[in-house]
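Annotators were shown the component list below and the corresponding predicted structure, then asked to write short factual statements about the assembly.
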Amino acid sequence: MFRVQREELVNELIKKGITDLAVIKAIGIVPREKFIEKTMHHIAYKDVALPIGYDQTISQPYTVAFMTQLLNIKKQGLKILEIGTGSGYQAAILYEMGCNVYSIERNLDLHHRTTKLFDKLGIRVHAKYGDGTIGWAEFAPYDGIIVTAGSPSIPLKLKEQLAVGGRMVIPVGDKVSQKLYLIKKISEDKFDVETIPEFTFVPLIGREGWKK
Ligand code: SAM
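Structure shown to annotators:
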């Protein structure tokens, strides 16, 4: 089901500039329709964000591909922390790419719904309910951290929990629009920061995020 639509989406993402073959392969395999309601299955492969309830969205496929590409995943078994499990689609892409995925969601209902879905689809992601702005210290350091909600600043704990040599991708800005930050940890206290303008995400709410 949806094989043709998935291929069309992959071609669209390539035309839009996605080049990482592992990312392209994963988008071509993971069934996006499983992460949204049945009533929206006919638009599952449009390159748009879609509602998943609780005022949240499954990110636009281009955004998922672009952010994942920035993580520069070049081998299997890398430990990746995702903040904002949401529908589970981004985590499923990382899992498909061979990552060891840890994912945190602050909405309890979404957390329960998505962990059930992971079980049903055989996606082995370590999922936790909580405030992702303080990270998941128990399993740190992470080779990569991906934050899928817009933050007012870069949470300190996430910088701490990133491995030296690791990368963090995080949208930072106000509640209307954000710049995507790519942060490379050079040493324990040295970071290289690049910014990519104009992305829009739902807000990251938490101790080091927005206060609602
Ligand atoms: N990665 C998700 C996907 O593939 O569907 C994107 C989901 S949505 C764009 C962002 C998610 O971040 C929402 O589910 C929201 O509840 C969650 N979120 C916001 N602030 C958070 C926080 N402090 N900790 C964990 N999750 C948070």
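Statements collected:
1. The first helix runs from residue 3 to 15.
2. Strands lie at 50-53, 56-58, 79-83, 100-105, 126-129, 142-147, 162-173, 178-187, 190-199.
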